[in-house]
Amino acid sequence: MHRAEAAVTPDDSAPKTPGRLRRRASRLLSQLSTRSDRLISEGLARADARKWHYAVLASLQEYGPGSQAELSERSGIHRSDMVGVLNELAERDLVERAPDPGDRRRNIITISTRGRRHLRRLDKVLDDLHDELLAPLSPAERDQFVQLLTRLLDHHTRTP
Fold first, then answer.
1. What contacts 24+ positions apart, CB below 8 Å, involve 45-54?
2. Do the Cβ atoms of 67 and 83 come closer than 8 Å?
3. Which of 57, 96, 101, 114 is spaced 20 to 30 A from 152 at the CA atom?
4. What's the pTM value of the predicted model, to 2 decimals?
5. HEC states along the chain?
């Protein structure tokens, strides 16, 4: 075999994905979501955090203090999991719990000064991870991609 032939010979060890699968947006989104989730989870773990920590801290920073139920709605974390997430954050002094003056049966959660600093650090970690995830796209394509994903998600999560 000549060198030119070797250069065009397909690599038999490369995975072969049928074209009809590569054209299915649902499959592509699912595969990208799996890879994205792994990348983000591993990256946050190196920063001693989890994605739920980020979601709660970001919610508190953007919308202010809230009850566990409000934080659950804002962040998408199931109510039964929220207590554990808040316990982890409170143990690290990233959030503060205080009784709700209007209803002593519930607590109001507030981001602490340490939590704000940690959130800024996690923002930088996530910026770098997103750069890695979206590396093949130009800045304009990244913006468009996020806008399209947002539009799709908003459409499919809209209540009738």
1. 46/125, 47/121, 47/122, 47/125, 49/118, 49/122, 49/125, 50/85, 50/88, 52/77, 52/81, 52/85, 53/85, 53/88, 53/89, 53/94, 53/122, 54/119, 54/122, 54/126
2. no
3. 57
4. 0.81
5. CCHHHHHHCCCCCCCCCCHHHHCCHHHHHHHHHHHHHHHHHHHHHHCCCCHHHHHHHHHHHHHCCECHHHHHHHHCCCHHHHHHHHHHHHHCCCEEEEEECCEEEEEEEEECHHHHHHHHHHHHHHHHHHHHHCCCCCHHHHHHHHHHHHHHHHHHHCCC
pLDDT for residue 155 is more than 80: yes
C-alpha atoms less than 13 angstroms from C-alpha of 58 in its C-beta half-sphere: 15
> Sign of the CA dihedral 43, 31, 34, 74?
positive
Average pLDDT over every residue of 123-150: 96
Question: What's the confidence (pLDDT) of residue 13?
Answer: 63
**Burial of 10: CB neighbours in 10 Å, binned 0-12, 13-18, 19+:** exposed
Partners of 108 in beta bridges = 98
* Two tokens, residue 3: 């060198």
Cα–Cα distance between 37 and 126 in angstroms, integer? 12
Q: Which two tokens stand for residue 135?
A: 């590396």
